[in-house]
User: Fold this.
Amino acid sequence: MSKGQSSALLLLIVIMIFAGMIVFLFQLTETVTSSKYTNMFINNLLITMMRTDTGLTEPKCKRVSDLVFCAYFDPGWRCGDMDCFSFAEHTMDHYISMFSEENLRYLLIVETPSFIARSQSGEPVRLEIGDSKLKEEKGKTFSEPLTLQKIINGRNYILSVKLIVKKKK
Assistant:
């Protein structure tokens, strides 16, 4: 084997190694599909909404997460000129339309994760803000449940919040 042939063979081997590495790296990278992007968007939308300040100074009404606690545990509490539940509903409508470029229908479900709270009639206590028809519809997207924790009067309260979203037609 001459010197030229061995150089060409070595060059061919190096090119094959680089091509193999490129193919391997492309297989490792995963493209973000539309559904994964939508799930990521909805999870971030829920987290952003819960951390957003409402503009009020009362501790029960200061952030959206505080409003969710207030609407769940004390819906009659007054936040400004509205009760807690109505103010939470109004605030969710405002922030969903503000944070999302598309017109979205949504349903925010709040419940206790560790036990099922029941009303006096025996029904599970669950707070739903938004379009309740979304529970039965197909083609909707869920967020991962977000756990909110708050200490009120020395007691630890935990709520699970889930956002269901669907584009308006």
Observations:
- The helical segments are 3-28, 34-51, 64-73, 84-99.
